[in-house]
Amino acid sequence: MWQVGPLAFAAPWLLLALPALPVLWWLLRVSPPAPRSQAFPALRLLQDLPPVEETPHRTPWWLLLLRLAAAALLVLGLARPVWQPVGGGGGAGPLLLVLDDGWAAAPDWPARVAAAAGALEAAGREGRRVALLPTAPPETGEAIAASALMPAEEARARLAALRPRAWAPDRAAALAAFEAFRVATPGPIATVYVADGVEHGTDGFAALSGALAAAGPLTVARAEARPVRVLPPPRAEADRLVLRVLQTPVAAPTEATVLARTADGRAIASATLPFAAGATEAEAAMDLPIEIRNQVVRLDLEPEAGAAGTVLLDERFRRRPVGLSAALETTADAPLTGDLFYLDRALAPYAEIRRGTPEALLARQLAVLVLADREVPEGREREALARWVEQGGMLIRFAGPRLAERPDPLLPVALRAGERQLGGALSWDRPQALAPFPEGSPFAGLTPPAEVTIERQVLAEPSPRLTERSWARLADGTPLVTHVARGQGRIVLFHVTANAEWSNLPLSGLFVDMLRRLVALSAGVQGAEGETPLAPLEILDGFGRLGPAPPAAAPVAANRVEATAASPRHPPGWYGTPGRAEDAAWRRALNLSAQLPPPREAGALPPGTRVEPIGGVPAERDIGPWLLALALLLLAVDLLVSLAQRGLVGTQWSRAARTAAVLGALAGAPALAQEPDGAAALTARLGYVVTGDAQVDEISRMGLLGLSDFMNRRTAATLAEPHAVVPGRDDLSFYPLLYWPVLPDAGVPDGPAAAALNAFMRNGGIILLDTRDEGSGEGFNPGARAALRRVTRDLAVPPLAPVPDDHVLKRAFYLLQDLPGRFSGGQVWVARDQDRANDSVSPVIIGGHDWAAAWAQDARGQNPYATIPGGARQRVLAYRFGTNLVMYALTGNYKGDQVHVPAILERLGN
Fold it and tell me: 491 — alpha (psi -120 to 50), left (phi > 0) or beta?
């Protein structure tokens, strides 16, 4: 391959034909004279004709130049010219393509694949064989290994099947795989290394890149000036979640956005974290009401999609409402001696604390109610408590003198009269320590400190079921914590006081851990936290999308989830009890970012390494077919001109007409780029309303272009490139459908614009208004709903209703249940009443699913915007909705009329 600036030739030897063009010039200078009809008289008349010496005609200079240009274009086109070619690695021998496919590669994975595909394209032009070496362990658990050498076309198919992993690369294992590859493939090689630019281990990048450079020419493709970010699990505080984002330093100030999502994918809150220039960490608080906070199941870092930017929130991050009540509220908070003093301080960091009488506390939703040495008198209060426990509440009671004297039925076990104390009749010689917690207890896995002792307690009456109702015991076997299930709820009794009067348990950290586990148990979380294995239920892929667990994924012990690093054996995602995957309370989250160190840039490259940036790099373009097509066009023009010179195309071809044809052919290519006025009337096409925001307008253009391409390939419709329109200035009658994204700052359309839009709807046109903030996209476009009211204030919008299941919009071409776009889950509104004057077609459709972003295709034919949360399947449904929408705009209620065909045929038959 020979390269001149941005132009390269894959078959440069064909350029040797260019010096032969002067010979062609000499041959083309002469052309035979045009034949002429002559009526000859008798032979004797010829005797008197003077002999005329005929000379050949000269070829016109412009025709000669046309033929030379056609010959030169043929030579250049056959030489396979490529504009802005991607380097193939240089050197000689086969090409080794090394690709970092760990978590850090996910945010710009399409750009990385494009860079790798460009290297494979160049290798294919050069006839090189290729081997692939991913650096992340495969999800099957097998060892990292380089592929065998293969043709570039086969390597391109394997590259397309690669996806980023939800764990870090193992460059040490990749280095061992490379050494094995070199043993099997000696000789010179060239290497292209698509690196993520992050150091994942001590000197791992330096060792691997050094070995690659030692084997031959090394080209490293990596993103420049793009931070690599990690979202660690948040810190749960009393009234907020404290978010922290880590990144590699960049020179310019940046910012990141964290979205809080519910189980159905809706974004219900967001927080922006600004980074100063060169900063590596930012922090922000997300303040949420307790009811909303407990709905959040995941946090997503935007715009960086990936497993490192996704945090799943299990019950450890919930704040459950806990009520505290004591017999005497006036002394309940007395320092060190109050009944609620230690309880409040132990639970406040993990729960929402509420105070009051039991009746007042039960007036609101409550997960746990703690009664500290407070008797429950017979009557309305006891009945309300019993009913609340039956319905799923957890009642935690602490003993004391009052409860010892007057026990009530709301206890897990029957109590003996009086209490057992040091020096009493039922006493022990010295304070008792705690025995290890039994398996099956919610406290299993906790280690009782030796310094925690009990001096006084209330005793349970012996019974056959006392052992199974004991969650904690003293060293002598007497119960310390007992429980019993009542209906859907539970009653728990600590046989000691909630202050330090009977024991020093409230002074220990064990007291906090025991209460925290009980609060978690109130939400349905399994109590056994020991070695109980939790199976993988749903697993995050490298892009941060949940899916089924791979076969190699193994269970994790419950007490090791937080300390387990993500790997092929334990990928990040939801772990829990099989068969209860739908119950979020029975799941534990294993997050990739919980065990990731702060990201740091990779070390220096070996000397002589060529660096190519990725992301935003223009794709190479093969211009050979265009040159050959232009050469054929010039040859066709030459043929017509030659026939005209010989008089074979009629006398109507004057010299001026021939000249105009030649000039028109030469100028035809650029003229095609400009559409004449009124081109919209020549073929069907879609339109989008200009908003004034360049990015939004570009998304609208790419979206309608992608939808048009989808329909042209899948249906009989033929749609031209979409047009941008300004209501009131452009004629809207040419477009069956207008797409209008609503911006938060959109104003009221002026008089001419409103009149044009009303006329458009009145004459059968459809406007699709998209607020881009519904369903899973809630919070993406704040203020859009208020802007929608402003935009439609002067428009003749009919009364609206949600799209019914039998609406034509759901069956115009495809049978659909939902109408998603980039987002899903929101309502889509159409005209409520049937208007026969307009064929019962709704003139306006309103939703907020950001359909254009789901349809959008860039210059590479790729979809630049992720569909949330359904991924590729959701994008297919978005295209199908777009197809139904356009068919609805083109054919009206044709599908609806088909329902009545049997009745019409029956009437015609009669």
Answer: beta
